[in-house]
Amino acid sequence: MSEGRKFNEDESAEILRRAAEMQGQAHSGTDGLSLGDLTKIAEEAGIDPQHVLNAAKEANRPAVATAVAKGAMEEMRRTVPGQLTEEVWEEIVNDLRSMFGRKGKIKKTANRYDWTITKDDGGKLTVSATSKGGQIDLRLLNDTSQSHIAFWVIGSVFTVMAMAMTGKFMSKAHYAFPEIAPTLVVIAAAFVAALVFGARYADRHSRSKHEACLDVVARHLEGLDLSTALPTMTAPASEEETLRLNLQG
Q1: Backbone dihedral angles phi then psi of residue 175, each to the nearest 5 degrees
Q2: With contact defined as beta carbons under 8 Å apart, do 126 and 109 qualify?
Q3: Could you read off the pLDDT of 137-174 as tens digits, one per residue?
């Protein structure tokens, strides 16, 4: 191939992606590349090293599964230095009950504590706490499948009703079916677009509230001396009360 050819941005990205894929297949038995190696390769390819650092940070974030195909599970984590004891777990549960306004069910195993509630839509929300290596790992798992199903069922009903009413009105106005059909298609497309946008907005709103919930619990634990006796301490009243009202709303 001639070295004089210029590739556009999309072609360049695809070539580099495919080359990296081939490299990975050829060296699948190695220990991988360090961040320094990746940064050096990026510089040689004309890629800003800061983009590599940002991409590495994204790769290290906990995976969040929100697609229906993956069970519509929303997951988020926080890590706090300290040891998980019965007293610490009680502090966590008190925070959760205050913010969600529900007692919840508690399950304890050898090295894990779970607090689970059933939401108004029938889905489950579980907050787990585990301890390892002097760290407390908080994990929130939210099942959004029931809310997705309800959202799409209700939205579909309204879409069919709107199409039926529009078709009936246009028929009474003596429009022929070839004239009615495009209008019905537009209505269906508009409702589907609104449903998709609405579902994504609801997911982002739900995730934002739950992220804030974990942040409050984590900051509460960070304010405690988890290596010795546990003092009585609660999250800031105004912030906790605001979150409680939002989570119940």
Answers
A1: -85, 145
A2: no
A3: 999 988 877 777 777 788 888 888 888 888 888 888 88
Residue 218 · residue 81 · CB < 8 Å: no
Question: In whole angstroms, how far apart are CA 196 and each of 56, 109, 143, 192?
Answer: 30, 39, 18, 6
Radius of gyration of the chain (CA): 26
> Rounded to an integer, what distance in angstroms lies between the CA atom of residue 100 and that of residue 90?
15
Strand order across the 135-143 sheet: 73-81, 135-143, 124-132, 112-118, 105-108
Q: Kindly give the pairing relationship between strand 135-143 and strand 73-81.
A: antiparallel
Q: Is the dihedral of CA 80, 82, 88, 89 positive or negative?
A: positive
What are the structure tokens assigned to 184, written together? 């019905």
How many other CB atoms sit within 10 Å of the CB of residue 210? 22
Please state, in angstroms and rounded to a whole number, the distance separating the CA atoms of residues 76 and 63: 8
Q: Is the predicted pLDDT of residue 11 greater than 80, yes or no?
A: no
Q: Is this model's pTM higher than 0.85 or not? A: no
Choice among 127-131, 138-142, 240-244 with the minimum mean pLDDT: 240-244
Please tell me the distance from the alpha carbon of residue 224 to that of residue 219, in angstroms, as a whole number.
9
CA dihedral 238, 201, 203, 123 (to 10 degrees): 90
| Cβ atoms of residues 96 and 213 within 8 Å | yes
Number of helices and strands in the chain (H, E): 7, 5
